[in-house]
Amino acid sequence: MNKAEILEAARAQIRAEGEVLIGIAGQIDESFIDAVELVVNCPGKILATGAGTSGTMARRLAHLLATCGMSAFYQHPGEALHGPSAAIAAGDVIIALSKAGKSQELNTFCKVAKARGAKIMAWTWYPDSPLGQISDVVLQIRPDEKGEGEDVLPFGSSLANGAVGDALTLIAKQMRGFDLHTLVQTHPSGATSDLVR
Length: 197
Description:
Blueprint: H1 3-27, H2 30-40, E1 46-49, H3 52-67, E2 72-74, H4 77-80, E3 93-97, H5 104-115, E4 119-124, H6 130-134, E5 137-140, H7 156-176, H8 180-186, H9 192-195
Parallel strand pairs: 1-2, 1-3, 3-4, 4-5
Helix pairs in contact: 1-7, 2-7, 3-7
């Protein structure tokens, strides 16, 4: 590739991913309201989970929810099956990210969590997947494949999960009354205190 081709390839990928996010905004429906209510009214812990790239986005989601005052943590589904599932109790919410909804360890973890009284929220391309079928709330987050790297690598879909998580976090923060002055108190490192007046 020459210099012009490199720049055009980069711009084309970024444009495609931008279009993915616009498309995801149009996919949001009443199931998102159910998701918000589940998070806002959660009396226990919120555990975000997923494997691979979905796990990375689940970890990001847990961080943002916790930053906004919610008792949120990331839990790797495979590790959960070696004992940590015992920490799950009635009133907890599991947010499970899985593109195909077929991950055996993730689905087993969700089944264990549900048996222990937790509510399950799935984020998946396929609502009728095994994960979708065992979940109480299902968000279909299915971006246009043109945002994926070479139609396969999870580029646009990662951004889509991130954007939906951002919207969920912001709305839940506002509904729960977590104010920015508390954010400054609990976020003394970094530039946050300089941004909040």
